[in-house]
Amino acid sequence: MVKTEHFKTYPFQINTIDEKEKALVRKLLNADPSEYVRVGPKKYLETANISQLGLELLNFQARKDDVWLFGYQRSGTTMTQEMLWLIKNDLDFEGAAKEVLDHRFPVIDNSLFLDGKEIKEIGDRSHVNEEVKIIARKYEKPYWQALNEMTGNRFIKAHLPISLSPPSVFEVGCKVVYCARHPKDVLVSLFHILKLFKPKEWEDISFESYWTLFKNNLLWNTPWFEHVKEGWAKRNDKNVLFLYYEDTKKDIRGTLIKIANFLDKKLSDNDLNKLEEHFKIENFRKNKSVNNDHFIELGIASKNKEHQFIRKGEIGGWKKYFTPELNAEVDKWIQENLKDTDLVLPDRKSVV
Ligand code: A3P
Fold first, then answer.
1. To the nearest whole percent, how much of the chain has pLDDT over 70?
2. To test ligand 1's pocket by mutation, which of 259, 281, 322 has the most ligand atoms within 8 angstroms of CB?
3. CA-to-CA distance for 24 and 212, rounded, in angstroms?
4. For position 291, what pLDDT does the model report?
5. How many CB atoms lie within 10 A of CB 302?
6. Model confidence at 2, in pLDDT bands (50, 70, 90)?
7. Which residue has the higher pLDDT, 299 or 2?
8. Is residue 333 a contact partner of residue 215, using CB atoms and an 8 Å limit?
9. Cα(7)–Cα(35) distance, rounded to whole angstroms?
């Protein structure tokens, strides 16, 4: 097994956000700016606990038979996780239904944004059924610890940019998928998820204020373009599959076949029919193994159906949110960021 040389200390600079940014966080989010830091040469916005957890994350040892998935949040990563898991496990729909995706295919960096101990305690004292209590208990340990103890195939997702994730992933020869989506739809989808998971902080925040935070790279794992460019740069590597959400939406069978080939698996017509049914948004939304309803049952996430985790599943939903002025501003932002890169957005336009 290829072993990565472990870092003794965290190799990236961690800085506080600047005064102008602090003022924005206070004004628009009414939040404590000391919770946010900038990390590394690309100045990714991360939660301050990365100074305690980042080193352990970076030193996590990937294995050759792991399957990894990277992607900025709200880029279709959940459905792609489920595709990878099911195809790798020969369409074991029963096995998939028995355990929530979060535990079958953990988000290795979730300790940066979820307090696992608190989730477990909430579960223990809530009037929820035993099944949900068991799910809650499994969040207690950071996933990288549980994954270290795991034998057999491991499936691991990371929302962190590739450069802040374990370098061993690209050294051991395991399979890696990067998911991307058009930033306009990512913007809308993320707005809803913040209201779902942080209902108190985000309840009254307008789309305009949210966009101001996003364009100033004050949301987790921004700058968005840097995140995607890191995945894009790996797209021709032998063990990497780069997927656009939009391509899957337009041709789900094509993506399923692509994933099967990537994992050295074969899918019959019948398999494809079953998978297509499984991934229909109306079925997926109801599927408790993937829809994160346990967070609602635990009282951690909002019950408001407008902000569901598996939400609309559309291309171009942004059109209902953007005013013409905002659209012009976002187009300008896209154009500026595409200037010095060969990155192509999913609508296949390098310039909008
Ligand atoms: P919307 O909020 O635009 O609906 P992620 O899993 O990376 O967080 O991405 C979430 C986005 O993928 C959400 O987008 C969600 O609805 C969409 N999605 C999840 N499952 C889907 C499916 N089976 N088909 C289409 N879109 C899906």
1. 97
2. 281
3. 9
4. 96
5. 20
6. low
7. 299
8. yes
9. 25
